[in-house]
Automatic annotation (TrEMBL):
Entry annotated with the keyword Transcription: yes
Annotated HTH gntR-type domain residues: 18-85
InterPro entries: GntR_C, TF_FadR/GntR_C, Tscrpt_reg_HTH_GntR, WH-like_DNA-bd_sf, WH_DNA-bd_sf
PROSITE patterns: HTH_GNTR
Pfam families per the UniProt record, alphabetical: FCD, GntR
PANTHER family listed in its UniProt record: HTH-TYPE TRANSCRIPTIONAL REPRESSOR GLAR (PTHR43537:SF20), TRANSCRIPTIONAL REGULATOR, GNTR FAMILY (PTHR43537)
Keywords: DNA-binding, Transcription, Transcription regulation
This protein's name: DNA-binding transcriptional regulator, GntR family
GO terms of molecular function: DNA binding; DNA-binding transcription factor activity
CDD domains for the chain: WHTH_GntR
Amino acid sequence: MTVRLVYNSLMKHPSDDQTISTTVFDALRRDIVFCNLKPGEKLKLEALKARYNASVSTLREVLNRLVSERLIETSGQRGFFVAGVSRQELREIADLRILLESHAMDLSFAAGDTEWEGQVVAAHHKLHRMEERMLANDLSAREEWKRYDWEFHQALISACGSASLMAVHGNVFDRYLRYQMLALTFRGAIAVEQHQQLMQAALDRDGARAKEVLRRHIDGGVEDSLAANPPVWAPDP
């Protein structure tokens, strides 16, 4: 199962073309977010046709959609490339995620009911089980770990009442996740404790506490990613 962070709404009876386009979009997006396609890599249509079993017209549509999400770049006649990465962009994406997620938590904490609380607790339970495996140095399921991480953070904001806010947050979360996958960092007990604190703050409806923990949580992830210093960083301007 992919960590697909923004789910597209289809018509009740989607056409075959729509279904194929969505499938290819999800697969290509996943490969970029999880760094199966590396930053700066040229995306050649013939190779993509074979990899995703898709027509050139479908691929062009998908590639342009991903350009709008800033996961792919295009430059004149040079074609399409996986978007590059830089220290500056990581910091910008992290700050934007903090801004969006903090606002969404405020709205969600105010509106959430008992059912929402149950969703938060259940999402944290699944994440914690995966974190226990990571703490035991079992790194074989990194995609499942990040899927549960996503589901927990989504649960925290799921009662915010704004589909637009969650969609924008989802795209930013994906772009932040790509940097984490590039560095493949797990901050161990510190991150585990911060997730526990976020769950408790949600149950207590303590927005101020949750936002303070979230900032430390994301800033810590940025510091770890920067310290890993993968070789694909673009120079900062």
